[in-house]
Every structure is written in structure tokens, then in C-alpha cells.
Amino acid sequence: MEFWLLLIAFLCLFVFLLSFLDLSRKNKKLPPGPPTLPVLGNFLWLLRSSNNFSSLEPVLRQLRAQYGPIVTLHLGSEPSIFITTAEAAHKALVRSGSIFASRPPALETTRIMLSNETTVTTAPYGPLWLQLRQNFMSAFHPSRLHLYSDGRKWAMNILRSRLLEEARPNHEAIVVVDHFQHAVFCLLIYLCFVKPGEEITEEDLKRMPYLKAVILETLRRHPPGHFILPHGVTEDTKLEGYDVPRNSIINFTVADMGWDADVWEDPMEFRPERFLKNGNGEEVVFDMKGIKEIKMMPFGAGRRACPAIAMALLHQEYFVANLVRDFTWTAENGCAIDLSEKQDFTMVMKNPLRVHISPRTLSVLFLADAFCALPAKKSDSKDEGEVDDRAYVQKAQTLPVIPHLMEISSLASSTVMAWNARGYSTMKGTRHL
Ligand code: HEM
């Protein structure tokens, strides 16, 4: 009997505490969201509207249309606030950078999975995080990336031979994702355990603005993460007139920002030229850290943004450039490539890419032709040994290049682009990917 009395008293106390918490929440002007139930918050509502976390995005789109750019969902004990426009993201992550640079406080139960909040990714904003981040940057600062070019070559060679090995014995299409993952794993091993080698410049990549534009367009159209890691605030604060309480969990709809028709023309089109100065220039100028303004944020933005932006971009460029140079890529049975995505650790292709590959000859010339500035450079004066690439234009037009960036982009993944680089420059309009 005593046990039951105790249990009832405990339950009453529990409900009282929860309603007290609910009340204190009601005193705040949180960003709007769907009606909540006591204790359950929006849990049942969300269960009805969406089956799992990966289909949260359509729900957030609906909420944005109904309530505006910042919305709240109550999914646990603390409110989850979603910021859905690049402008509001800029206000939070850049203009109020130091406040929004923390991680949400971890529950005792999840702390263990977050390495007790002592890694650069999980540590709250403060001296420990700063030290860890500086530590990370001392190894991977953009100015040191050239020191790892031996590792890049090594991983690229492994990838090349694995692809060849599988492609040779039969003429069936091959699935490339496992090989990419293996190569990225090798690269990470190298970065972690092998001493950097001699300096080798990455000059070639610097002369390939179109390649850079393709990578950026891929990150815009198919960002590896549709959200970033959850953020927290260091103190109670306000955003666009709403309260953002100290314990809230804040996230950003990264993919939707890259597809926002108010910011990007024809956002669902795959059109790398949008990143080239004046549409066809030789230069790519893009503020990936969103310091002046945010237009897309595949790497996050502000103080907590991915510290490996330069490294990730360099490796994507390097792998794609080499894969395009070394092989011709043709879709299985000439089929269109299905670019739909599914949530894995990051976003990946729902149907892994299956392709026929075959080694290419005269590859350097194709590469130069494919990735250098548009329109094709026609050099009048040539140094000794330099070959006029015009002779190869016709051949290059038959290049169906399908590099799958997902696993190449290391921990993260990007996505596939299907394009014929030279064809692109002559084609009217763009492809809908
Ligand atoms: C295409 C490749 C990559 C993408 C799209 C990407 C994206 C991101 C994003 C969205 C965040 C969260 C930012 C935030 O919370 O505001 C992040 C954080 C981070 N990324 Fe990356 N990342 C990539 C590659 C890498 C690589 C290769 C490394 C390491 C070698 C790396 C290391 C980190 C670290 C340490 C953090 C945590 C930073 C912090 O909390 O201060 N990332 N990344």
C-alpha cells in the first residue's frame, strides 16, 4: 500500500513539475510553432505529419509557410528552434556569432556518446573548444594542405586501381561507392598517422575555376547534411523579436537555404556557371563562410563553421579532377542518373551510382579542356611542348562525366553531378538534376 501511495505522490510531483516547466515556457515568446500538448509537446503531432527525422524537412517547409522563417517544435524537454532562411541564419551565426556558437547542453544520458563534450565538435563554446579548434587548425590550416599531397596521390592511386580491377574482368556496370569510401578511409589514415611529405603545389587545381564551380554547385544542390550539428546559445537571447532560451536546441534548414528561389535563380537547376564571375568568367568568388551574407551554408557558418572547408574542397576537386582525367564515365545502359537522396550518416544517393568506366588516353588534355575557364581558352602563343587543346574539343564533347562526390568528400558526402563539361559550354539551357 505504501508503495502505491509513494508512486502516486511521485507521479503528482512529476506532473506538477512538468506543468511548471510548461508554464515558465509559456512566459517566453518563443518562435511560433504548431499547438503543443502538455508533456507530449509536438510529439504526436509530428508523428502524424512525418514518419521519421528525414522527412522533417517537408514539415518544416509547411511550418515556415504558416508561421514564418523561425519556428519552434517541442520534441523533448527543451524547445527545438529551426532557422529556415539564410538572412536569419546570418543574424544568428555571424552577427550574434559568440552567443549562437555553443552546442545544446547534453543530457546526462547522451553525454557519454558525445565524448563527455570534450571534442572540438561537441564541446560547448568556451576555452576548451577554442583550444581544441586551434589544435585542429594547426594540422589542417589551408596553408598546410599542400603538405599532404603525397597522401592524396596515394589514396587516388588506390582508388584508381580498385576501379580498374573491378571494371576489367567483366563489362558490367560497377557500383563505385565502396571504392570511394575505401579511398577516403585510406586518406584519413594517412592524414592521421603519416608525416607530411615534401611540398608539392596544387597549382593545377587553381587553374580550374569551372571544376571549383561544379563542386560548389554540388554542395548547394545536394549538401551532404540537410541540417548542421545542433547549436545552443551561451545565454538567454533574442532573435528577430523572439526569445531563444539558454537550453534550446537550434538548427538550420541548410538544404532549403540553397534551394531558396528568393536567393538563387532557378534553384533546382544544376548550373555551375552561377558561381563563375559574370556567368562565364575565369574566377570563382564565393564567401563560403558567409561573413558578409549567407547564401548557402553546407559547412555551417560563423564561429562554429566546419574548420575543414579548405581541406574538403581541395580533396573534392582533386579526386574529381583525377577521376575525370583518368576514366570515361558512362551511366549503366545509358540510363538517366537517379539523383534522389536518402539519409545515411550523411545524405547519400538513394540508388548508388552504377557506371561503366574505362581508362582514358590523352587524359591531361581532356582535363584541361573540361575544367578550365569557359569559354575554352584558345592560346595564341604557346610555350614549347604545350599542345593546342582545340584538337580535342570534338572528342571531349562526348564526355559523359559522372563523378560521384558523396564519399570522396571524406566524412561528409556530397553528391553526383552528371554533366558533359564541354557540352555544357555549348548547350543552351541547363540540365535539371
Ligand atoms: C564536404 C565535406 C564537409 C562538409 C559539407 C562539412 C560540413 C560540416 C558542418 C555543416 C559542420 C557543422 C557546423 C556547425 O555546427 O555550425 C561541420 C563541423 C565540423 N567539421 Fe566538417 N564538413 C566536411 C568535411 C570535414 C572534414 C574532412 C573534416 C576533418 C578532417 C571536418 C571536421 C569538422 C569538425 C571538427 C567540425 C566541428 C567544428 C566545431 O564544432 O567547432 N569536416 N562540418
Radius of gyration: 25 Å
How confident overall, as mean pLDDT?
Answer: 76
Give unreliable regions as ranges: 197-201, 362-433
Count of alpha/pi helices? 15
**Residue share in helix:** 25-40%
Tell me the structural class. alpha+beta
The molecules bound to the chains, other than polymers, are:
protoporphyrin IX containing FE
SSE order: HHHEEHHHHEHHHEEEHEHEEEEHHHE
Q: Major sheet, described briefly?
A: 3 strands, mixed
SS elements, strand count: 12
The share of residues in extended strands comes to 5-15%
Q: Overall 3D geometry?
A: globular
The span between the termini is 67 Å
**Numbering strands along the chain, what is their spatial order in the largest sheet?**
1-2-6
- The assembly state of the depicted protein chains is single chain
Describe this structure in words.
This protein has a domain at 139-226 and 264-432. The protein is 39% helix and 10% strand. The protein contains 15 helices and twelve strands. The strands form five sheets. The chain has a three-stranded mixed sheet. β9 and β10 (347-349) form a beta hairpin. The longest helix has 25 residues, at 2-26. The protein is globular and about 75 Å long. The termini are far apart. Bound molecules: protoporphyrin IX containing FE.
Describe the structure using short key phrases:
39% helix; single chain; binds protoporphyrin IX containing FE; three-stranded mixed sheet; disordered C terminus; 433 residues; 12 strands; three-stranded antiparallel sheet
